[in-house]
Amino acid sequence: MKRIGVLTSGGDSPGMNAAVRAVVRKALYEGMEVYGINYGFAGLVAGDIRKLTRRDVGDIIQRGGTFLYSARYPQFATEEGQLKGIEQLNRFGIEGLVVVGGDGSYRGAYALTKRGYPCIGLPGTIDNDIPGTDYTIGFDTAINTVLDALDRIRDTATSHVRTFVIEVMGRDAGDIALWAGVASGAEQIIIPEKGFDITGVADNIREGREKGKKHTIIVLAEGVMDGKEFAEKLDAIDNFHVRVTVLGHVQRGGSPTARDRVLASQFGAGAVEYLKADKGGLCLGLRNEKIVAHDIVDTLDNMKHKPNLDLYKLNKEISS
């Protein structure tokens, strides 16, 4: 394989640029050409494709977001969209494709794989909800962004003796809430993978106050409900002086951490190695600190992401 393409799709995450940089630099090192596809699968179908040089990826490893841009493109779920995408890849002579993104992006790579086109999926999402990997590109940066916000909110929560509900991202996964909650010393973590009783939450707040606590920090994963609704449920029980902070898209931005830069670089270089060996239909992951490859069809059909619920148990034991 001498000519490959790379695109980023779905929600952006810190480290995507580092992954693309690694794909380009590794491919050039191996004597291959790389074509960047702007705006994900939408740009693929539209033929928004350009050759990338070493200079194009200079000074981007530290930048958040994605310099190839991203876009939602549900039409790629159709046969027509997929065939148009393959037509553009053939027109540019691109023999293999690296797709960096989350679940929806993997579905696009999955569809191309089923049609015989070699793809490599790289897990790029702050949600950390991709099966086949312990960590995704951008997750570490996101939880550190959340942690910084939680540390600041704790200051004002203590000053005013208030209860703060912090709504964090993660789609249907509780990983961001789990990791940031434990790291910040949050009193309670509410995630989709574990049920909760609002009366029990209220009792926990009261118990904390009886022990002399001046504040309560509750980290709420967006997959459970929104922060306003959660606060209303608490207020219906008692006046806990609840304030809600929705961190929103600030969690997606910012310069990637060292861990995300290294992980993205390993994934990007690994993708090139597989395509150079004419191996497609794979997605890369991190298992026990080692880069591994899985069949992308098997991954999406048969694997399921599971958060580290030991952290949930740990927080229950040490937060009181």
Automatic annotation (TrEMBL):
Its cofactor is Mg(2+). The active site is at residue 127. It is found in: Cytoplasm. GO terms for biological process: canonical glycolysis; fructose 1,6-bisphosphate metabolic process; fructose 6-phosphate metabolic process. Residues 3-274 form the Phosphofructokinase domain. PROSITE patterns: PHOSPHOFRUCTOKINASE (PS00433). It catalyses: beta-D-fructose 6-phosphate + ATP = beta-D-fructose 1,6-bisphosphate + ADP + H(+). Its EC number is 2.7.1.11. It comes from the Bacteria. One of its GO terms (molecular function) is metal ion binding. Allosterically activated by ADP and other diphosphonucleosides, and allosterically inhibited by phosphoenolpyruvate. ATP binds at residues 11, 72-73, 102-105. One of its GO terms (cellular component) is 6-phosphofructokinase complex. ADP binds at residues 21-25, 154, 185-187, 211, 213-215. Mg(2+) binds at residue 103. Substrate binds at residues 125-127, 162, 169-171, 222, 243, 249-252. Keywords: Allosteric enzyme, ATP-binding, Cytoplasm, Glycolysis, Kinase, Magnesium, Metal-binding, Nucleotide-binding, Transferase. Pathway: Carbohydrate degradation; glycolysis; D-glyceraldehyde 3-phosphate and glycerone phosphate from D-glucose: step 3/4. Pfam families: PFK. PANTHER family: ATP-DEPENDENT 6-PHOSPHOFRUCTOKINASE (PTHR13697:SF4), PHOSPHOFRUCTOKINASE (PTHR13697). Homotetramer. Catalyzes the phosphorylation of D-fructose 6-phosphate to fructose 1,6-bisphosphate by ATP, the first committing step of glycolysis. Belongs to the phosphofructokinase type A (PFKA) family. ATP-dependent PFK group I subfamily. Prokaryotic clade 'B1' sub-subfamily. This is ATP-dependent 6-phosphofructokinase. It comes from Marinilactibacillus piezotolerans.
